[in-house]
Amino acid sequence: MSRIGKLPVEIPAGVQVELNGSEVKVKGPNGTMKRTFSPRLGLVIEDGKLVVSRSSEEQTVRALHGTTRSLIHNMVVGVSDGFKKVLEIDGVGYRAEMDGNNLVVHVGYSHPVVVVPESGISFEVDTKTRQITIKGFDKEQVGQVAVNIRKIRPPEPYKGKGIHYLGEKIRRKAGKSAKAAA
Question: What CATH number belongs to 9-80?
Fold first, then answer.
């Protein structure tokens, strides 16, 4: 049996979970999320916990068991606490700033790049540390927005300039002079 799938999902105070067949609707202080799962899995709420069970031992059902539980857990955590990703900007003259709700990134192009937040997403910029914080209640959406912002100027391997995740290790290459000396 799946180690992740057999764990019950704790439902914290202030979060409401509604089951309608294979559809799960989670409502909390940060927002509302709704998702439909496979009807081959059983979803039951017992003692303030949501339990995911499987109907058979087929490979496809076993594969969906842990995934479904993780997705439901992410929905519950998202509407109660929320998720965030932190990006860092490295490079001379590279910076980010807020223009209302929009994020404006200056990373060496002839023009500033404006990123408009999707619904459910908010940005925060710390100008001293040159960090961008992306916050939201949908884990997938927060991660996708972070990837899209990182794609504006990914870190290059020679000087390490660009946008990268906080704590991400950039693989550096030796330049021409280092190769010629060897």
Answer: 3.90.930.12
